[in-house]
TrEMBL record:
The keyword Transferase is annotated on this UniProt entry: no
Single GO term (MF): ATP binding
Keyword Lipid metabolism: no
InterPro entries per record: AAA+_ATPase, ABC_transporter-like_ATP-bd, ABC_transporter-like_CS, ABC_transpr_LolD-like, MacB-like_ATP-bd, P-loop_NTPase
GO terms for cellular component: plasma membrane; transmembrane transporter complex
Protein name: ABC transporter ATP-binding protein
SMART domains: AAA
Domain ABC transporter, chain residue ranges per copy: 5-229
Amino acid sequence: MTTLVSIRNLHKTYQRGPENVDVLRGIDLDIDRGDFVALMGPSGSGKTTLLNLIGGLDSPTSGSIEIAGQHIEKMGSGQLAHWRSNNVGFVFQFYNLMPTLNAQKNVELPLLLTRLSAAQRRQNAAVALELVGLKDRGKHRPNELSGGQQQRVAIARAIVSDPTLLICDEPTGDLDRASAEEILGLLQELNRTHGKTIVMVTHDPKAAEYATHTLHLDKGNLVEQSAHV
């Protein structure tokens, strides 16, 4: 295994009124290429903050984040935006689909930032939809799809650019158990069969069982790491 994400002495402090709040307190972490990591911990433990830092949505107060040989903590906002578009796919709890666009067009959205032709964008989106099991739902708008199907569209959108890293923030938090297990099975397949490196925040121990590793955070500290057999 080769290391994809290398984090050293990572701190994140927010100012709330007159006080400084330390959300992350010196995190050291390595994630190998091909890992499926579940981030767990109580509310306020720093899970989403760590996820946002790994995904380049936020910058640390201090420390380093090296991903595929690039130190993203040294990038400005414009560089980070360009880096994210080329390297990271995001899956959120509430899908974040455009309601006026059908599934095909929603999946194509990240490709609008590329130099691909319209025909290439359609082809890539169709392949991504087929990969998540929605080959015949491309013309459907979000309100014509179930919650689980909408999240599949969101996953297709996240992988359509073939990102290095897939970032998932509570991807099953708004789904019933059956739909949640389908989505987790899909993420596991993307990891095992297609080699996607995935970092997922979850409160659900059953969801974490689909990952290859679980990391537990508490009060901004990494308190436990476990590998799944």
